Description:
Blueprint: E1 2-4, E2 39-42, E3 47-50, E4 75-79, E5 85-94, E6 103-106, E7 118-123, E8 132-141, E9 144-154, E10 170-175, E11 178-183, E12 203-206, E13 209-215, H1 227-230, E14 235-237, E15 247-250, E16 266-270, E17 274-278, E18 298-303, E19 306-313, H2 321-324, E20 330-333, E21 338-340
Parallel strand pairs: 1-6, 3-9
Antiparallel strand pairs: 2-4, 4-7, 5-8, 6-7, 8-9, 10-11, 12-13, 13-15, 14-15, 16-17, 18-19, 19-21, 20-21
Amino acid sequence: MVVLGLATLGAVGFLVMRSDGGPSGRATGDALDPAEAQMWTYPADGATNVEFSWDGKDAPQPAAPPQGYPSGPVITLQATQGGALVVSKVGMHAVEQGDEIEVTVLASENDAYLNAETIAVIPHRPLEPVTTYMVEIMGEVAGESFHKEWSFTTRREGCDLLAQDCNPGRGCFLLSTGRQCLWAGQGYVGQACQYPTECMAGLTCMGSSCVPLCDSSETPNDETIACSNRCSGGTFLVPGAEAEEPARLCVLESCIEDPSVCEDSEGCFWLGGFVCAEAGTGAHGSECAQASDCERGTSCLGHEGQFSCRTLCGGPGMPACSDACGDEALLFDAEHQVSFCP
């Protein structure tokens, strides 16, 4: 099934890769065979390690396909010389399974951000990992008929936080939905952030700063990212990671002993370690999803399946637990004797 009429694609329609999944180094991709030397595709014929999904985040952002985002990757065909592309047939299927893939086709007639020489094909749903797909497009360019078929293979599911094995321009980030390859930002170590993807690959947003990942294993594959070499201030667990995960986050500067290291707008919050983060307004008992939802003196902690802002006590500069919540206080940081009130 092919759908026409989705709006706006933007620059993503011109992204192209080498056969190994990396950028070609050219403006629009790898040329097709000599008989079709004026046409280019993304992904290139035979490309591997191609992303199997796309979150739709582009500027300007496209309208969502019928099932919404995430969709499959954007596939493009471009005539670099010779005139406009006029498409009469678009098809896509999984080579082994034979399943036809439902797609939306964008062209200059239904997307003001595409020129007449480019068409884009967006699968309605994410593709399967490690699967080969065939694309077929027929039509005319400058009055001459063309029939193009090419194939590509998608990358494996998930990614490695330490190896950062995503395609160029992307980073491996751990979100609530699991590890994902997403477009990485430009945020360097210590730069202010709100979201993980504002940070460079190999970093993530913790508290309100871009924080580097490090390898806590006894024999790291890469000594340059060993926690002992990278994190002089210590480490803490990556929120949401499995217990056996060797990746850790570096503590840029712990605030547990001296909360004055935090900015005026920040508080000292527990995020697997005590770090400065933007302070919110949530009092004890308020529902929360992140540290910045809570006011100073509390942290967003889970207890009996519920996350809420909970008063901290017993640690340096904190109220005595007997005053804060009596005998109900629960110890969670033995090193600094910090408890929270349930």
